[in-house]
């Protein structure tokens, strides 16, 4: 036995020398030593590195054991076969459950067992998939009186929603989906496609197989009838025109204001027949009060629908702005009042009469 050990080590050394002569490399880290059928403890080296002694070794997909038994290899093959079968079962479950809306709980029972049914070995392999199913015997529903498997098949679809996508004839065939995300992806991918929700597969399939009329794709809705209303011969006032109109009002240039209104009355109203807003939060009562127009203040304040205390963007009411824009004698709009103080007192008197 010792001579055989030395001869085998010499053969390994010759193999290393031959590999070097032919420019080949032997990886000692991937080499292993296995004693078959004998309990000897001889050690061998390659390039001076001792080979690890193993009891089992897998090479070319075959698990080889030191006792030449096939138990380990059969167990590994069973695990691989079970994983493949289990994957097929999960795929079948998903197809029937999600695509065909068949309740697979009548045929498969959710299970958390680690045992392969009907197999003597406990086979378990961790997977990231959380769905675990194991085939179980169909319950004795077939033996119940009045039970019809066909009716049970269609009962599974009673609460299902089918998304039918119809496409133009030149863009391919329509499809029916259960997953709304897939239906919307199909809809966005086809120009002119139509999507409709159905409660049963028959109507959904009929809609999907009906091509969309391509003649109405450019304008599927008829044009709305135009309103029989006489249009205004004047154009809408531009923003620049409104700014100029407001500046003329602020400066008291009545002649230019009248001229602008005569040229385009649309300065005063919008296309919706509403008053033009020259400045937000400023009411006509604000303008009349701050410019000291007593007659306008009196007319507006006495109207029952006029609000006397609205606030502008600065938080001021019309009373707070009484004659605030009168800075000189030339701007006094009434000859009866010789100073802004008298105008302020008159405006305050008008508001007091209205409040009382």
TrEMBL record:
Residues 118-142, 210-234 are annotated as: Disordered. One of its GO terms (molecular function) is protein phosphatase 2A binding. This is ANK_REP_REGION domain-containing protein. InterPro entries: Ankyrin_rpt (IPR002110), Ankyrin_rpt-contain_sf (IPR036770). GO terms for cellular component: endoplasmic reticulum. It comes from Schistosoma curassoni. Pfam families: Ank_2. It comes from the Eukaryota.
């Amino acid at each position: 036995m010792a001579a055989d050990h030395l001869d085998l080590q010499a053969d390994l050394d010759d193999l290393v020398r031959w590999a070097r002569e032919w420019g080949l490399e032997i990886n000692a880290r991937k080499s292993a030593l296995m004693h078959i059928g004998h309990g000897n403890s001889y050690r061998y080296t390659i390039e001076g590195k001792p080979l690890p002694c193993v009891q089992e070794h897998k090479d070319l997909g075959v698990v080889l054991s030191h006792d030449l038994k096939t138990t380990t290899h059969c167990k590994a093959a069973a695990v691989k076969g079970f994983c493949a079968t289990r994957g097929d079962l999960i795929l079948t479950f998903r197809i029937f459950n999600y695509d065909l809306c068949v309740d697979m709980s009548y045929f498969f029972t959710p299970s958390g067992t680690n045992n392969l049914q009907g197999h003597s070995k406990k086979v378990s392999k961790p997977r990231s998939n959380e769905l675990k199913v194991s085939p179980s015997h169909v319950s004795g529903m077939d033996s119940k009186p009045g039970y019809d498997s066909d009716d049970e098949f269609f009962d599974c679809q009673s609460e299902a929603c089918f998304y039918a996508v119809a496409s133009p004839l030149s863009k391919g065939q329509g499809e029916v989906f259960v997953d709304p995300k897939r239906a919307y992806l199909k809809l966005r991918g086809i120009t002119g496609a139509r999507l409709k929700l159905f409660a049963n597969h028959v109507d959904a399939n009929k809609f999907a197989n009906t091509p969309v009329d391509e003649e109405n794709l450019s304008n599927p809705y008829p044009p709305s009838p135009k309103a029989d209303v006489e249009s205004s011969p004047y154009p809408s006032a531009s923003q620049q025109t409104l700014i100029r109109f407001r500046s003329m009002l602020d400066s008291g240039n009545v002649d230019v204001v009248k001229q602008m209104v005569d040229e385009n009355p649309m300065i005063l109203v919008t296309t919706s027949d509403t008053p033009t807003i020259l400045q937000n939060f400023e009411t006509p009562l604000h303008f009349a009060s701050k410019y000291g127009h007593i007659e306008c203040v009196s007319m507006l304040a006495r109207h029952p629908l006029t609000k006397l205390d609205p606030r502008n963007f600065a938080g001021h009411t019309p009373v707070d702005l009484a004659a605030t824009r009168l800075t000189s004698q030339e701007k006094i709009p009434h000859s009866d009042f010789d100073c802004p103080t008298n105008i302020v007192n008159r405006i305050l008197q008008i508001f007091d009469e209205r409040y009382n």
